[in-house]
UniProtKB/TrEMBL annotation:
This is Si:ch211-194e18.2. Belongs to the phospholipase D family. It comes from Cyprinus carpio. GO terms for molecular function: catalytic activity. SMART domains: PLDc. InterPro entries: Diverse_PLD-related (IPR050874), PLDc_3 (IPR032803), PLipase_D/transphosphatidylase (IPR001736). Gene3D superfamilies: Endonuclease Chain A. Residues 61-88 form the PLD phosphodiesterase domain.
Length: 306
């Protein structure tokens, strides 16, 4: 049974899909990079017009390609958490930013895209980087325009050409520069790394971001708020880490760490497993938008700082 809400959501996705396909009649090229060769949406677009390159992230980093951005005419950009499928546009709570008429930022993003584009059919990272993919802006040399100081960073380190900031360094910079508050919304918060050694799984604590937040609250008296998704795949240890973090402020009058779990109403309009997918951090002097916040990076993702 198709509900009215389902029908409206499908219509929105269908309109977007058809507008992308209509670009051919206007002489506009559509190029897409993904690591999902089995995507029904991408196969449909590839068969009809779009140029699609698939990156074998399993061979390159044993991770996934989680970057999500658009570059239009090297002038406009979209950066956000939403993937290009109907589920991301209907079942998931996403966040994105559109920047119009900013050729400088578009050029930097285009260089990241160009690097992805070149990785099709490769199972290794080039040892020598082309100057066409080196960073235009970074954390140390940010782009200055109307949205304050903005720079793009990426991960993992293998995907960082000359001048490109690693996202862990960008996160560290934002947290350390905060003076009054740090507000974070994230799907999962689990500072653990799963490794395999001789076929046996090994789990260890991954401390960098977790320790920075604790230090900010306890030593620098910065107010920390965490909004974490509560869904079917929330790890039980997430509760333990949050309890441990809040316990740090016991007996400290100026220490403030607040944690809330966010659950999207299930079965709304007949849908199940609706998720809060957006990932961002707000401080008193910066906004940080990510696609894979606060997990150890084995995946390729992209962030922007404003």
């Amino acid at each position: 049974m198709i509900t009215h809400l389902k029908y409206l959501i499908y219509c929105h996705w269908h309109i977007l899909h058809m507008r992308l396909l209509s670009l051919k009649s206007r002489g506009v090229r559509l190029k897409i990079v993904s690591d999902q060769p089995n995507s029904i949406e991408l196969k449909s677009m590839s068969d009809r017009y779009a140029e699609v390159h698939y990156v074998n992230m399993t061979a390159l980093t044993k991770g996934r390609l989680l970057s999500s951005f658009w570059v239009v005419d090297r002038k406009h950009v979209y950066i956000g958490s939403a993937g290009m499928n109907w589920k991301a546009l209907s079942k998931l709570k996403e966040l994105g930013v559109i920047v119009f008429d900013c050729s400088c930022l578009a050029l930097d993003l285009h260089r990241i895209f160009s690097f992805y584009w070149q990785l099709q059919y490769r199972d290794y990272i080039p040892s020598i980087w082309s100057k066409r993919v080196t960073a235009v802006f970074s954390r140390d040399e940010p782009l200055r325009f109307r949205l304050n100081n903005t720079d793009a960073s990426t991960s993992p380190e293998l995907f960082c050409p000359k001048g490109r900031s690693r996202d862990l360094d960008a996160i560290r910079h934002v947290i350390r520069e905060a003076q009054r508050f740090i507000y974070i919304s994230v799907t999962d918060y689990l500072p653990l790394v799963n490794r395999s050694f001789r076929g046996s799984p090994i789990v260890r604590y991954w401390s960098p971001i977790d320790e920075m937040l604790r230090e900010a609250a306890v030593l620098r008296e910065v107010k920390v708020r965490l909004l974490i998704s509560l869904w079917t795949r929330t790890h039980p240890l997430t509760i333990n880490f949050m309890t441990s973090m809040q316990a740090l402020c016991t007996g400290l009058p100026v220490c403030s760490i607040e944690v809330r779990f966010y659950r999207v109403k299930e079965q709304m309009g007949g849908f199940q497993h609706r998720i809060n997918e957006n990932k961002f951090m707000v401080t008193d002097n910066a906004v940080y938008i990510d696609t894979l916040l606060f997990r150890k990076r084995h995946c390729q993702n992209f962030i922007i700082i404003v």
